[in-house]
Amino acid sequence: MSAQREMKEKNPWPTPVTIIIIIVIGVIAIVALVTVAVLQNKSVPQKYKYGIVLDAGSSHTALYIYQWPAEKDNNTGRVEQTHSCKVKGKGISSYASEPWKAGESLKECMGEAENTVPKERAHETPLYLGATAGMRLLDIVNSSASKNVFQAVEKALQNSPFSYQGARILSGQEEGAFGWVTVNYLDDRLKQGLKTTGALDLGGASTQISFISDNFDGSESPINSVNFRLYGNDYNLYTHSFLCYGKDQVLKMVLANQTQSGATTVLDPCFHSGYNETKNYSVLYDSPCVSGRKPQEAPEKFDHIGKGNFQECQKAVKSVFNFTFCKHSRCSFNGVFQPPLQGPFGAFSAYYFVMNFLNLTDTSMPLETVKQKLSQYCGTSWDKIKRQHPTVNVKYLAEYCFSGTYILTLLTEGYDFTAETYSNIKFIKKIKGSDAGWTLGYMLNLTNMIPAEAPDSPPLPHAGYVSIVTLMTILLIGLLLFVALRIFWPRCSKKTQIV
Ligand SMILES: Nc1ccn([C@@H]2O[C@H](COP(=O)(O)OP(=O)(O)OP(=O)(O)O)[C@@H](O)[C@H]2O)c(=O)n1
Question: Is the pTM value of this prediction over 0.90?
Answer without folding.
Answer: no
